[in-house]
Automatic annotation (TrEMBL):
InterPro entries: ACX-like_C (IPR049517), ATPase_NBD (IPR043129), Hydant_A_N (IPR008040), Hydantoinase_A (IPR002821), Oxoprolinase-like (IPR045079). Residues 4-181 form the Hydantoinase/oxoprolinase N-terminal domain. It comes from Gryllotalpicola kribbensis. Gene3D superfamilies: 3.30.420.40. Residues 500-668 form the Acetophenone carboxylase-like C-terminal domain. This is Hydantoinase/oxoprolinase family protein. Residues 203-488 form the Hydantoinase A/oxoprolinase domain.
Amino acid sequence: MAWRVGVDTGGTFTDIALVDEERGLIAVRKVPSSKEDPSQAILSGVLGLLADHNVPHAEISRFNHGTTVAVNAVLEGNAARAGLLTTSGFRDVLELGRQRRPHLYDMAVRKPEPVVPRELRIEVGGRLAADGSEVQPVDEEELQAAIDRLRAAAVEAVGVCLLHSYADSAQENKIRQRLHEALPGASVSVSSEVHPEYREYERFSTTAVNASLVPVMRRYLDHLSDGVAAAGITPPVRVVQSNGGLASITTTGELPVSTLFSGPSAGVLGAVQLASEAGIRDIITFDMGGTSTDVCLIRDGRIPIVHEREMDGRPIMGAMVDVVSVGSGGGSIAWVDDGGLLKVGPKSAGAMPGPVAYGRGGIFPTVTDADCALGYLHSDAPLAGTLRVDTPAAERALETQIGDGLGLDATQSADGILKVLQADLVGAVRAVSVARGTDPRDFTLVPYGGAGPLHASALARELDIRRVLVPPAPGILCAYGALSADVRGDFGATCVAEATEAGAAAITHAYQRLDERAAHWAEVEAVTDAVVLERHIELHYANQSHALQVPLDGHPDSDALRRAVADFHKLYEQRYGYALPEEPVRVVAVRLTATAPAERSWSSERIPEGDPAPTIRDIFVDGSWQQAEIYRREALPSGWSCQGPAVVGQLDATTIILPGQAARIDEFFNLIIEEAQ
């Protein structure tokens, strides 16, 4: 018998899923995250779950992990002390950035502090032309002086970002070799490996962030892998990347910037898989945790990938699942501003002290406290199996900190908080749908995370989405998604050429280089299964600066390029409402995805446990207190159904069914909620 362990660390809880490869999902567990050392919560949670189910450690076949270590280090300013070597005249690229402003008319906008301070950004003589040819060799004296300054500053890491090094890496490789020899204790990140593509500011930013994260991630991964090995679990730890694929700890330790969106990507993967099994291919994922909400639109079961996102105001380049995030979660703090307006977030109570209802010292009312005051969460159903909420404490906080200033009681304050929250959630869904020319009413909403199912029914009704699919274990879906992730590598390169037969030779040469990188990746990842290769190409109209990505079917000959250009016109019209078929189209980048598909053969069998008969309690819905049927999900068999208002509770999440909605358990044990006809 073989077992798989999936882990996802969040800001509030660490989620663990245990799967028997023959029988399917066996058990889940949520434990409080350990902020100082996330591996402590992981190891104690995993070992406890294995012990509870008498699983021999030697029978674990896979240990897959979604992590927040990198993103927390960036957001909290806890990255390593790093230096940066760059071409003469380009020391301040990180601060100059781009002309665009996050808020056009806000004159008080402050740019994020560069991850590498100015005194540790050092210029070195040498220059490459745009085609990669050497205009001026590296100045050896300046390089040595820079190394001496970095040594004196006791940096843990160094980034190397030379102008146009995406076209030729020789100068960066030379500097890296010198740094390894002179600073053996420092890690080195070179931009020609981190992100070998044009756009200097974005490449510099990504490399600088990566360099500052390498020491942090290596320490964490070493600690985690040592603990796993000491427990007798033999398979290597693999980490979920921002692209939704897995990578070894070796790759992750060298490229931690690729894990900044690890958890959200794993959740999308799990949602797509479960929905596809139920025959649903068009979905909007809705992942609401303790501190934020992530939304992604999936069409025909294909996860969308983007190659640029921002993290704390800094551009990050690389392959990432296209998720839109808002700072609203179950732990988001509600407050009244100076103008008397009720606000929710972006500050969060986190895991400690957490919401007031948790009884851990929290004093500020949160979304979770509002859920308690409205009867959605109740002390009779402990959160994560052990945490009993204190509703009276939540009500007192709502009355004193929200209601007194607005003339509202606890119920009215809580209802107002959820309405404000709803506006933020609706905006996030519209950002991935309506704003991109897609009608969300044609999709199924798939909520997960600890707070997602609580608010999904109201969100779906607001958007006129007719169907909601709540997975069997929504609170740990990110951990579940990690279990079935493929080992994946994404490779890209700048290639400026005409999208015609005239540019075919240059495009072919660029793909040859990507093929070499993919072959090296397969060796590092110890991939033994067949690797599936997918080619994509980025195109834009002449004289435009931003490109769209389309598939490249086969080798880049004239026929394949013609099909790619036709797809580009269609995508451009879908995105912007028009196309320019008479305009010349140019290639700006080529991309290659290498995937070693994971086997997933387990079923969704489950034996209901307990009495399916409901209890009754009052909840506040549609502006009044109403009697609702209260169910335990583990007792509900396939084929069960009910009418709202109702509450379905389980270990890892609580689902609300509104009046006028009908719910049922399908053959895959998903909870399906639909508007009654």
